[in-house]
UniProtKB/TrEMBL annotation:
Name used for this protein in its record: Probable potassium transport system protein Kup
Provenance organism: Bifidobacterium apousia
Entry similarity comment: Belongs to the HAK/KUP transporter (TC 2.A.72) family.
Principal location class: membrane
Membrane-topology annotation of the record: Multi-pass membrane protein
UniProt superkingdom: Bacteria
C-alpha cells in the first residue's frame, strides 16, 4: 500500500514515477540535453567540483600508441606500394617478393627477436650433452673413436630428423592462424575424433611441467659454471649455497621482466644469442682444426652400429643422453606465434650449423685427448669448457650463464601460449591476459607467470643443484613429442597424404618412443617429480573440461517471445520498488537474439529486481589490436538491451566506461529513456541512473542427479575458479560493488522421499488434564 500511495502521489504531482524527486520549493525545469563531461544539470545537486576520478570516454578516437601504430602501418604500406611499382629483378627477386607477401615474411628485427625467444633452450644443450656422454661411458679413458663417431652421428641425425624435419619443415607448416604448439594443433584436428583430446591434454600437461624444470636446470647449471673460474673457486667452496642463491635471484628477475613483453626481451636477448651461437661455431671450428675426418659421423651407419654395439656400456639408454641435444624443439614450435614462421625459417640454418660445428668440435677434442692422463682424474669433466684455452673460458662461462637465462625464456613464452590456447579450449580457467607488444601472439599472463616462478623456485629448493634437477629433466618432454607426432600424423592423414602420414608416424614414433624408454631410466632419480607435476596439470585440465561440459549441457536460453511478457509486466509493476536504474549482467554468450535463463531467473528470484533497463553484456576480444565496436539488440523494447562489445586485444576492457558511452548514445537516439540523477555517484555521470553489475556463478545442488565423476569435476572446477582471478578486476568493475550471485546448476534431480509426521505422545500437566506434545 505504501508503494501504491507513493506512486499515486507522484502522478498527482505531475511527474512520472521514473523522474527524480524535486527539492522543496524548486520549480520544475525543462528537460535539457544530456551532457557528456559530467557537468550537473539544473535538476542535479552534484557539486561543481569533481571529487571522484572515474574513467571517461575521450573525444579522441585513437590513443597516441594507436596513432604511432597507424603511422607505422602507413609507412609499411607505402614501402609495399613502392616495391610493387618496382618490378623484381630476376627469379630471386620474384621469389623474395612472394615470400614478403606471404605468412613466411621475414624482417631483420623479428629475426633478432626469434634468436632471443626461440633458441635459448636448444642453444644450451652443448653445455651438458657431451659431458653426460663421457660420464656414461665411464670417463675419457674408456671413450674410443667408434663411440665418439657413433655419438656424434646419433646427435646429428636426431637434430636433423626431430628438429629440422619434424618441427621446422612439417609441424610449422601446420599452424592455427599463425599459432603453433600442441593445443593449436589439436584445434585443427579435434573434429576428426573425440579421442584426440587425450594426446593433446597429456602432451600439453607434460610441456607445462617441463616449463617448470627448464629455468631451474638451465640457469643453475650455467651459474655452477662460475665455479670453474679460478678467481671465484675459493668463494664458492666456502659458500656451498651461493650458486643456489644466485640462481634464485636470476629466476626472480627473469619472471619479473616478463610483463614488458617478449618483443622487448627478445631484442635484448637476441643480440646475446647471436653472439652465443657464433661463439659455439667458432670454438667448434677451432677444435676441429685440420681433423676433418670427424665428419665421417655424418654417416648414419656409425650411429646405428654404436647403438647396438657391445662396446656401448649403457645400451639403448644412450638415447636419453642423445635426447638432450633436441630439447627446445617443442618450444620452437610453440613460440612460432610469438615471432612468425618466416623468421624461424631464416634463422634456423645458422643455429643448426653452429650446433653441429660445436658438437663435432667437442668430439674432435675428445679423440685427441682420450689418452691424456691429466684429464682422466678430473671429476665431472665437461668437454665444452675443457676444450677452450683458459683465457677464452672466462668469456664462455659468462656467455653460458646468459644463455641459461635465455633458455628459460623460450619455455616461459611457450607456456604463456599453451595456457592461452588451453583456455580457449575450456581446459583451463579464464585468466587475465595482457598483450605488451603490437602482435597478439606476444602475450603475458600474470597468474601463470607467478605460478611458474613459485614452482621453479620450489624445484630449486627441493633438488638444490643442476645435477639432481637434470635427473628429472627431459622425461616429460619426450611425452609431449610423442603426442605431437600422433596429432601431426592424424592431420596429415585427413589432409589426403595417407602414405606420408603412415611413414611420418612410423619413423618419428619409433625414434621418440626410444627416447622415452631411455629417459625412463631417470624415473627413480627425479623423473618421478616431472611425471607427478604432469599428472597434476593433466588432472586440472581434465576436471575443468568435464565440469564445463556438464555446465554447458544444462545451459538454457530464452527467446524474446518467451521472456518479454514477464519482463514487461515487472517493468510496469509500480508496486515493486526499483532495485536499480540499470541492472547489468555479464555473460559469455555472444548470441544477440536470446537471453540466458540464468539472467531471467536472477531477475525474478526471491525479490524481483525491477529496473528501468536490464542489460546483458558480452565482451569479445578480436585479433586486430585496436578494435572498438559494439552492437545492441533491444528486442523492440526500451528496457531490455543485449550488448556485444568487440574490443581489440590491446584495448583496455573497461566495461563500465564503455557501457556509459553506449547508454548516452541510446538516450540520444531515443532508444533508452532519459535517466537523470540528482545524487552524487562514483561515476560522476548525472545523465545516467544508478548502475548495478551482477555476475552469476553456478553451484551444484546436493540432490542433483549426476554421476560421481561429473559432481567431483564440478567441485574441483569451482574451487579452482575461486583462486584463478575474477572478471570484476579484469573489466574494471570493482568501484561499482558488483553483486556475485550463486544459482543452482539445473541438472536432473533425484526424487527425495517425503517426510512422515510423527505424533508426539501425550503428557500429563497440572490439574490432571492430558496434553499432547
Amino acid at each position: 500500500m505504501a508503494d501504491e500511495r507513493h506512486e499515486l502521489a507522484a502522478q498527482d504531482d505531475g511527474r512520472g514515477a521514473d523522474e527524480p524527486p524535486r527539492l522543496s520549493g524548486e520549480k520544475r525545469a525543462k528537460p535539457t540535453t544530456a551532457r557528456r563531461k559530467g557537468q550537473p544539470t539544473k535538476e542535479s545537486i552534484l557539486p561543481q567540483e569533481s571529487f571522484t576520478k572515474a574513467p571517461k570516454i575521450s573525444a579522441k578516437s585513437r590513443t597516441r600508441e594507436e596513432e604511432n601504430e597507424l603511422k607505422r602501418v602507413r609507412r609499411e604500406a607505402q614501402r609495399a606500394a613502392q616495391r610493387r611499382r618496382t618490378p623484381p629483378k630476376g627469379p630471386l627477386g620474384r621469389w623474395w617478393r612472394r615470400v614478403q607477401s606471404s605468412p613466411d615474411r621475414i624482417s631483420l628485427g623479428m629475426c633478432i627477436v626469434a634468436l632471443g625467444v626461440v633458441y635459448g633452450d636448444i642453444g644450451t644443450s652443448p653445455l651438458y650433452t657431451m659431458q653426460a656422454f663421457v660420464a656414461g661411458q665411464g670417463g675419457m679413458a674408456r671413450v674410443d673413436r667408434a663411440a665418439v663417431l657413433g655419438m656424434l652421428s646419433l646427435v646429428f641425425w636426431s637434430i636433423t630428423l626431430i628438429t629440422t624435419v619434424k618441427y621446422v619443415l612439417v609441424a610449422m607448416r601446420i599452424d592455427n592462424k599463425g599459432e603453433g604448439g600442441i593445443f593449436a594443433l589439436y584445434t585443427l584436428v579435434r573434429h576428426y575424433g573425440k579421442w584426440l583430446a587425450i594426446p593433446a591434454m597429456v602432451g600439453g600437461a607434460a610441456f607445462l611441467a617441463d616449463s617448470v624444470l627448464t629455468p631451474a636446470v638451465s640457469i643453475s647449471s650455467a651459474v655452477e659454471g662460475l665455479k670453474t673460474i679460478p678467481v671465484l673457486t675459493p668463494i664458492f667452496r666456502e659458500n656451498g649455497n651461493l650458486t643456489m642463491v644466485i640462481t634464485f635471484v636470476i629466476i626472480l628477475i627473469l619472471f619479473a621482466v616478463q610483463s614488458r613483453g617478449t618483443e622487448r626481451i627478445g631484442k635484448v636477448f637476441g643480440s646475446v644469442v647471436m653472439v652465443w651461437f657464433a661463439f659455439l661455431a667458432l670454438i667448434g671450428i677451432y677444435c676441429i682444426g685440420n681433423d676433418w675426418s670427424i665428419f665421417e659421423a655424418l654417416n648414419p651407419v656409425y650411429g646405428i652400429r654404436f647403438l647396438f654395439s657391445p662396446q656401448n656400456p649403457v645400451g639403448l639408454t644412450i638415447m636419453g643422453t642423445v635426447f638432450l641435444s633436441t630439447t627446445g624443439a617443442e618450444a620452437l614450435y610453440s613460440d612460432m606465434g610469438h615471432v612468425g614462421r618466416g623468421n624461424i625459417y631464416a634463422t634456423w640454418p645458422f643455429i643448426n650449423i653452429a650446433l653441429v660445428f660445436n658438437y663435432f668440435g667437442q668430439g674432435a677434442w675428445i679423440l685427441r685427448n682420450r689418452d691424456n692422463k691429466a684429464l682422466q682424474g678430473v671429476d665431472g669433466l665437461n668437454p665444452f669448457f675443457q676444450m677452450m684455452p683458459t683465457t677464452v673460458r672466462y668469456v664462455a662461462v659468462i656467455l653460458s650463464v646468459t644463455a641459461g637465462v635465455i633458455a628459460s625464456q623460450a619455455l616461459i613464452t611457450g607456456a604463456f601460449t599453451m595456457v592461452s590456447e588451453a583456455t580457449g579450449l575450456n581446459w583451463m580457467p579464464h585468466l587475465q591476459v595482457r598483450y605488451p607488444a603490437r602482435t597478439r601472439g606476444q602475450l603475458y599472463i600474470p597468474t601463470i607467470n607467478w605460478v611458474l616462478c613459485v614452482a621453479t623456485l620450489t624445484v630449486l629448493a627441493i633438488f638444490k643443484d643442476s645435477e639432481h634437477i637434470s635427473a628429472a629433466y627431459g622425461l616429460a618432454l619426450t611425452v609431449t613429442m610423442i603426442t605431437t607426432t600422433v596429432l601431426l600424423a592424424d592431420y596429415i592423414w585427413h589432409d589426403g597424404k595417407r602414405v606420408f602420414s603412415l611413414l611420418f608416424a612410423l619413423v618419428f614414433l619409433a625414434i621418440q618412443i626410444l627416447f622415452f624408454m631411455a629417459s625412463m631410466a631417470k624415473f627413480m632419480h627425479g623423473g618421478w617429480f616431472t611425471m607427478l607435476l604432469t599428472a597434476a596439470i593433466l588432472y586440472i585440465m581434465y576436471t575443468w573440461d568435464v565440469g564445463t561440459k556438464v555446465e554447458r549441457s544444462q545451459r538454457r536460453h530464452m527467446t524474446a517471445k518467451e521472456c518479454l511478457p514477464a519482463l514487461e509486466m515487472l517493468h510496469n509493476d509500480f508496486r515493486v520498488p526499483y532495485y536499480a536504474d540499470n541492472l547489468v549482467y555479464l555473460t559469455s554468450d555472444a548470441e544477440m537474439r536470446r537471453l540466458d535463463t540464468d539472467i531471467f531467473f536472477s531477475i525474478f528470484a526471491n525479490r524481483p529486481k525491477r529496473a528501468r533497463a536490464w542489460w546483458a553484456v558480452s565482451v569479445q576480444t578480436t585479433d586486430a589490436p585496436y578494435t572498438r565496436k559494439y552492437s545492441v539488440e533491444n528486442f523492440g523494447t526500451n528496457y531490455l538491451f543485449r550488448v556485444r562489445m568487440r574490443l581489440g586485444f590491446k584495448v583496455d576492457q573497461n566495461v563500465a566506461t564503455y557501457l556509459h558511452q553506449i547508454m548516452h548514445e541510446l538516450i540520444d537516439s531515443g532508444e533508452l529513456p532519459k535517466q537523470p540523477s540528482i545524487y552524487p555517484k562514483v561515476d560522476e555521470d548525472p545523465q545516467i541512473g544508478t548502475v548495478t553489475y551482477v555476475l552469476v556463478h553456478k553451484a551444484l545442488m546436493p540432490e542433483s542427479k549426476i554421476d560421481s565423476r561429473g559432481a567431483f569435476s564440478l567441485k574441483v572446477k569451482y574451487a579452482i575458479r575461486k583462486v584463478a582471478g575474477s572478471p570484476i578486476k579484469w573489466f574494471g568493475l570493482a568501484p561499482y560493488n558488483p553483486i556475485v550471485e550463486v544459482q543452482p546448476l539445473f541438472v536432473s534431480t533425484r526424487a527425495v522421499p517425503k517426510l512422515t509426521r510423527v505424533v508426539l505422545p501425550s503428557r500429563k500437566i497440572k490439574g490432571g488434564k492430558h496434553h499432547k506434545g
